[in-house]
């Protein structure tokens, strides 16, 4: 004779086992932040080209504009910002800081570095046959540290990134440059190393202990299901 309530008890246990397995899966590590890399772009910036508009995150909004400008005997290439984007500069409206690879671009900067807009990248000034150079990218290649706002990161929250730029200003030649490539971190307020290209995103995979719990709960569930089936056959 079948025990009263046995079937109902097993059904309840099956629900408990299923919930336990789902809970263990929920404890698996969540995805990390990710770096998005543009790939090589090699965009020329000089007197023969229109300004280069840089859309770091591909949302059809320009964050930075690289432009050539001549005024009298002064020729320069500079970047300007839109939508609240900024770069690491030495002082307001001064030269942008040329960063080496692996510099940690984040909210707190080393002394002497500040977040600014409209910095000069490379400049040449002709005066009575002599030339003076200003800007950290004269005949040099390096990284600009940048930060900007996205729909997910507003106010005091920022997305951080880098732009690699090559400045070419040989004596006696027009000023010019090349925007090589760029990348940004898609999570708010997460630092990025200058030059970092690879994504840090990881797949949520249970640990060995979590796999053990999942297998254990599944075995219990299977055993309970077989017992339930047997009980139903005896009751029929």
Describe what this molecule looks like in 3D:
The chain has 2 domains: 1-30 and 217-236; 35-193, no CATH class. Helices cover 21% and strands 33% of the residues. The protein is built from 2 helices and 14 strands, in the order αββββββββββββββα. The chain has helices at residues 6-26, 208-235; strands at 35-37, 43-45, 52-54, 64-71, 74-81, 86-89, 104-105, 114-116, 120-127, 130-134, 140-148, 159-168, 176-185, 192-193. Strands 1, 2, 6, 8, 11, 12 and 13 form a 7-stranded antiparallel β-sheet that branches. A 5-stranded antiparallel β-sheet has the order 3-4-5-9-10, with no helix packed on it. The protein is elongated, with a radius of gyration of 30 Å.
What keywords describe this structure?
14 strands; 2 domains; alpha+beta; elongated
Main β-sheet: number of strands, strand sense, barrel status?
7 strands, antiparallel
Q: Count up the helices.
A: 2
The oligomeric state is single chain
Our Rg estimate from Cα atoms comes to 30 Å
Helical content stands at: 10-25%
- As a percent range, the share of strand residues is 25-35%
Q: What is the number of beta strands? A: 14
Could you report the average pLDDT, rounded to the nearest whole number?
80
SSE order:
HEEEEEEEEEEEEEEH
What is the straight-line distance between the termini? 12 Å
How many domains make up the 3D coordinates? 2
Q: Report low-confidence residues grouped into runs of 5 or more.
A: 27-31, 201-208
Q: Supply the helix-strand structural class.
A: alpha+beta
Principal-axes geometry comes out as elongated
């Amino acid at each position: 004779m079948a025990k009263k309530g046995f079937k109902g008890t097993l059904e309840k246990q099956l629900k408990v086992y299923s919930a336990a397995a789902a809970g263990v899966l929920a404890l698996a590590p969540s995805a990390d932040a990710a770096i998005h890399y543009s790939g090589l772009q090699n965009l020329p910036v000089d007197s023969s080209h229109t300004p280069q508009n840089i859309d770091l995150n591909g949302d059809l909004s320009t964050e930075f504009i690289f432009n050539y400008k001549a005024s009298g005997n002064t020729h320069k290439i500079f970047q300007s910002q839109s939508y609240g984007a900024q770069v690491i500069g030495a002082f307001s409206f001064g030269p942008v800081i040329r960063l080496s690879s692996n510099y940690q671009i984040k909210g707190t900067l080393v002394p002497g570095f500040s977040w600014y807009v409209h910095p000069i990248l490379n400049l040449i000034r002709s005066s009575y046959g002599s030339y003076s150079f200003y800007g950290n990218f004269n005949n040099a290649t390096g990284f600009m540290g940048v930060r900007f706002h996205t729909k997910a990161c507003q106010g005091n929250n920022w997305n951080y990134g880098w732009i690699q730029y090559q400045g070419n200003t040989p004596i006696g030649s027009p000023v010019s440059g090349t925007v090589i490539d760029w990348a940004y971190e898609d999570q708010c307020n997460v630092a990025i190393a200058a030059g970092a290209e690879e994504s840090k995103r990881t797949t949520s995979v249970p640990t060995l202990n979590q796999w053990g719990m999942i297998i254990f709960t599944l075995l219990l569930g299977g055993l309970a299901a077989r017992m339930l089936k047997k009980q139903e056959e005896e009751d029929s």
